[in-house]
Structures are given as C-alpha cells and as structure tokens.
Design goal:
This protein is an alpha+beta fold. It has one domain (3-89). It is built from 1 helix and 4 strands, in the order αββββ. The chain has one helix at 3-21; strands at 33-41, 44-51, 59-66, 71-78. Strands 1-2-3-4 form a 4-stranded antiparallel beta sheet.
Length: 91
Amino acid sequence: MDGGEFLYEAKKIISHKATSLVSNLHRFKPDDVRPVWISKTLQNNKGMFIVSDDKLDGLYFELTYDGHKRRFYLDTCRKIENNVIALEDVD
C-alpha cells in the first residue's frame, strides 16, 4: 500500500471511529482527520493522527497497516502528561 492510499484509508477509518466515540452526535468526515506523523517500512505503514475537534478531549489515534496480513490495527490514545527532562538530569 503506498502512502497516498494509506492516508486515504486512515482518514476513513479514524473518522468512523471518532464518530462512534461521541455517540454519533457529531459526524466526523475524513477531512477532519489530520496526520501528525506517517512512516512506511517495506510493506507496512504506521501513522499518528488527530481529529480537529475539541469533542474528543485530547485523543489521538495510531493506525498501523500490516502488509503481510493486509490488516489495519487502530489504537486510541490520550496524552496523560508531558514532562520536561533536562539532559543534565539523566544518569
């Protein structure tokens, strides 16, 4: 699967999942999904995505495509905290 096809499928899958998370009160469209990071290694694709809407309260989505099995795996995540660690503090 090339990068363009992965992005197209990812936006469809994630917009559908985001809609189901808000009890279908709001319909998200594929254009509401924004890629944050995408990588392709051999036949596999992986990406991190956000949906541009505050109804999802900080959720982001990780989507992986396994080219051998021809399957997608979707993780729904929430950032819990963001810590700053200075290099001097690392042993």
